[in-house]
Design goal:
Structural class: mainly alpha
Radius of gyration: 41 Å
Shape: flat
Number of strands: 0
Order of helices and strands: HHHHHHH
Length: about 150
C-alpha cells in the first residue's frame, strides 16, 4: 500500500472549511437546524474528498522501489519469463508455391470448365408481371381510402 500524503489533520481542515462555508451560505435562507444538517453533510463530503486527494497524491508522489530492493525481492525468480521457446512449422514450400502462382498460368494450363461441370448456375429470379388493369387498381385504392 502506498503511503498517504500528509496527515488526517488535512482532512479535518478541509472538512471544517466546507462546514463553515456551507453553514453561512445556508443560514441566510434556511432554519438553524437545516443549516446545521447541511453543514454536517458538507463536512463529511469535504473530509472524504480530502482523503481521496491525499491518497491520489500519495500514490503519484510515492518514491518508486530502488533496483536493489527489487532485486532482493526477486532473488529466486530472476530467470522466470526471460526465455520464450516457440518453433514455427516449416511452411517454406507452401509459401514458394503461393509466390510463384499467377492467374494467367492457370488459365493457360487448364481449359475453362462448363457450368454443368462446376455445378454453378446463375440465379434467375422470376419477373414480376402485373395481372390487373390500372383502372381496377385505382378502384381498389379508392375503395380502401373511403373507410
Amino acid at each position: 500500500m502506498t503511503t498517504l500524503f500528509g496527515t488526517i489533520r488535512i482532512n479535518f481542515v478541509f472538512g471544517l472549511i466546507g462546514l463553515v462555508y456551507t453553514f453561512f451560505v445556508s443560514y441566510s435562507s434556511n432554519l438553524l437546524s437545516t443549516s446545521l444538517y447541511r453543514a454536517g453533510t458538507a463536512f463529511v463530503i469535504w473530509f472524504v474528498i480530502a482523503f481521496i486527494c491525499r491518497w491520489v497524491l500519495g500514490y503519484v508522489l510515492a518514491p518508486t522501489q530502488s533496483a536493489e530492493d527489487h532485486s532482493q525481492q526477486n532473488v529466486g525468480t530472476e530467470h522466470k519469463g526471460t526465455q520464450l521457446d516457440i518453433t514455427a512449422p516449416d511452411d517454406d514450400e507452401e509459401l514458394r508455391n503461393l509466390l510463384k502462382y499467377s492467374p494467367q498460368e492457370e488459365s493457360k494450363s487448364e481449359p475453362k470448365k462448363s457450368a454443368a461441370e462446376t455445378g454453378f448456375e446463375p440465379l434467375n429470379p422470376p419477373k414480376l408481371v402485373r395481372t390487373k388493369d390500372a383502372e381496377e387498381l385505382a378502384k381498389a385504392v379508392r375503395h380502401l381510402s373511403d373507410n
